[in-house]
Amino acid sequence: MPTLPDHVRSIVSEIETDIGEPAWVDSEAIESSRGPDPIEHAVRDILAEIGEDPDREGLRRTPERIHRMYHELTAGYHVDPDRLMNGAVFAVDYSEMVVVKGIEFYSLCEHHLLPFFGTAAVGYLPRDRVIGLSKIPRIVEMYARRLQVQERLTQEVADFLMKTIEPLGVGVVIEAQHLCTAMRGVRKGGTTMVTSAVLGQFRRSQRSRDEFLAHLERGDNRR
């Protein structure tokens, strides 16, 4: 096998293993070195309570996997907003609307710890400053990787942008499906929830809101 550059080896490692898991894991050694974990004990209790055997082969490492999974899915609590932004706000002589849409996200509903997922669209009217394109999806990701309700997620993204780059206005629309609706309760799969938050000129001006919504309605006509 050829010697790979570090950045290529990193990509290969991510493809070969779960996020946060090294390519080879001695689970017994890890367990003995780190001591008991409250999350893993709780998962074992849940498995036993529903009538399963936590020690059978298929479930033996499930508490460990769930432990890692919840740390991954709630990593947004630990994101430093300053490091995320990393100075990516630039002075630009541009005052027309900027819209980024089709931002995929996955989050956990705080009521049942079941996933909800969909897409976010974010628009803003610059006040002589713009934000680096990649930062907007990262902002959505920062707040999505927490226990959430869709309404709060929508508002938090809008508030963060308004505070960070001080634009004339911000608009955020999120469209998502919730597995707590599809798998339990009313059990209506395919139900979609749409939430929006508008601040500044997006709230004051019907024209700005209409322009933002018009951008969202435009499909990709490429073939």
Notes on the protein architecture:
The chain is an alpha+beta fold and 223 residues long. The chain folds into two domains: 6-73, no CATH class; 86-217, GTP cyclohydrolase I, C-terminal domain/NADPH-dependent 7-cyano-7-deazaguanine reductase, N-terminal domain (GTP Cyclohydrolase I, domain 2). It has ten helices and seven strands. The longest helix is centred in the C-terminal third of the chain and has 16 residues, at 150-165. The chain is globular, with a radius of gyration of 21 Å. The two termini are 39 Å apart. Mean pLDDT is 86; it is low at 23-27.
Shape verdict: globular
How would you state the average pLDDT, rounded? 86
The CATH homologous superfamily of the largest domain is called GTP cyclohydrolase I, C-terminal domain/NADPH-dependent 7-cyano-7-deazaguanine reductase, N-terminal domain
In CATH, what is the class of the largest domain? Alpha Beta
Number of helices: 10
Tell me the total number of β-strands: 7
Beta content: 15-25%
Largest sheet: 5 strands, mixed
How many domains make up the coordinates? 2
CATH architecture label of the largest domain:
2-Layer Sandwich
Strand order of the largest sheet: 5-2-3-6-7
Q: Unreliable segments (pLDDT under 50, ≥5 consecutive)?
A: 23-27
Counting helices, strands and paired strands, the structural category is alpha+beta
Helix content: 40-55%
Distance between the termini: 39 Å
Secondary-structure element string:
HHHHHEEEEHEHEHEHH
At the fold tier of CATH, the topology name of the largest domain is GTP Cyclohydrolase I, domain 2
Radius of gyration: 21 Å
